[in-house]
Amino acid sequence: MSQADPKRELLGITKDFRSYIEAEIASGVENLIIPKSSKAGLLAPVKKEVFSCRRCPLYKTKRNYVFSDGDPEARLMFIGEAPGEDEDMQGVPFVGRAGQLLTKMVEAMGLRRQDVYICNVIKCRPPNNRAPLPEEVAACKGYLLRQIDIISPKVICCLGKHSAQALLETEIFITKIRGKEFEFNGTTLIPTYHPAYLLRNPSAKKEVWLDLKKIIKILSLR
Ligand code: URA
Hints:
48% helix, binds uracil
């Protein structure tokens, strides 16, 4: 068995660290926070790539790339569809009305927003909040898969049909799959309704709460 080369290892860490700083600067951060976790370091090169992405035309119309929010060490990852107007303005996922509801959902689970990891399938806002096109999902999905691989959460909660369908590679209705448990790359994936849908259909909140309770049980929360 070959011995780990400490010089190479150090070089790798230095490269990750450099990518992290470059990605933070590229995203307009003024006060740099040094990551205490290696997952943040591993995410840095992915974030850096996203911040110069031109894989689909959405980069031309977006204001900001929207990479993620929350804790890279989280055991629970929420995946939405694509940034809306507020997210596009701030460069942070789920900060508009749907995002406020998501924060409440997280808190109802006994967690804080900063305890979970939040991102989207698509990192740039589709114009006029239209649904992402299949070619946009295809272009962006690789970034999401790398995020999932690095975070390796215990549970992924897909918010809405676009995120569930993109990851499960199915066209099945969200009504048929919500609340079900799927195995995804060694993680439990549970789709539920999107908070934006709940804003329009508050009566569906009780189904979402059933789904969240499943997650609470899997993670032994509360
Ligand atoms: N809807 C999403 O799917 N993602 C966001 O970040 C905001 C709203």
